[in-house]
Prior knowledge:
By secondary structure, the protein is α+β, with helices and mostly antiparallel strands. Helix content is 46%, strand content 20%. A hairpin with a 2-residue loop joins strand 1 and strand 2. The radius of gyration is 43 Å and the shape is elongated.
Amino acid sequence: PKGEGKEREPSRTLVHVGDSSVQIGIDEAVDKIPLPLPEPRKPRGPYDYVPRPKREYEHRPTGRLRLRIKNVGLRGAPEVWSDRRGGRIESHLSEFVASVLVAAERQRLDRIEAEGRRLEALRQERRRQAIELHNDADDVLEKDLAARLKDWRQARDVEAFALAVCERASISTTKGTVI
């Protein structure tokens, strides 16, 4: 048969409310009943390893239906409604529908919060880049200032030297001696 041995992928039933999509599902509760352990095989020799047999289970449908909200966590609210002794699942449909609307609103608020966090991170990154750019500009200006100050001091020293030479030359010429 076609697709033998493949697990059936569960369907995705979505309820669209505004721009939110809430995944819902309906299934039947299943009891997991352990089967007796099979007899382990006999060892073939004195050093043969005999693994312990694996526990197998029988899955029996219980007849109890469950409604689920699958892709949204509702903090403090139920996400599963099921048949109970006191009432069938049909008696919980209005509560389930209201919870689907709450889940859609939760999704919308989560998207708004995520967008706010993304924008805040973007603002912080831009601020960091602006500060870095400003600091880089300060470094360039500081290096330029240091180079100009060095040139100015060197020019001042050369000027002082030239004045000293001129002064010495004028003193020497008035006394008649040549340097």
